[in-house]
Amino acid sequence: MPIETASGQAQCPECFADITLSTVMQNEITQCPGCGAELEIIALEPLTLALAPQEEEDWGE
Fold it and tell me: Which residues lie closer than 8 Å to 12 by C-beta, 6 or more apart?
């Protein structure tokens, strides 16, 4: 089963800047170059971004 990736433009949900993404996967975390917000790619068709969930204090312990 091949890994699905996508490239294209999406809009930052925080500052509404247009972001160009290249070869990204669903659930990947990226950063907005405009406002610095951490964003999660929640869909590939169409490319859709949402604010990434904040890490809880006990994650990874």
Answer: 18, 19, 32, 34, 35, 37, 39, 49
Query: Within a domain: residue 57?
Result: no
List the structure tokens of 35: 């406002």
**What are the tens digits of pLDDT across the range 1-59?**
788 999 999 999 999 999 999 999 999 999 999 999 999 999 999 999 999 988 766 65
Give dist(CA 49, CA 20) in Å, integer: 12
Kindly report the CATH number assigned to the domain that includes residue 16.
2.20.28.160
Tell whether 22 is covered by a domain: yes
Residue 3 has a pLDDT of 86
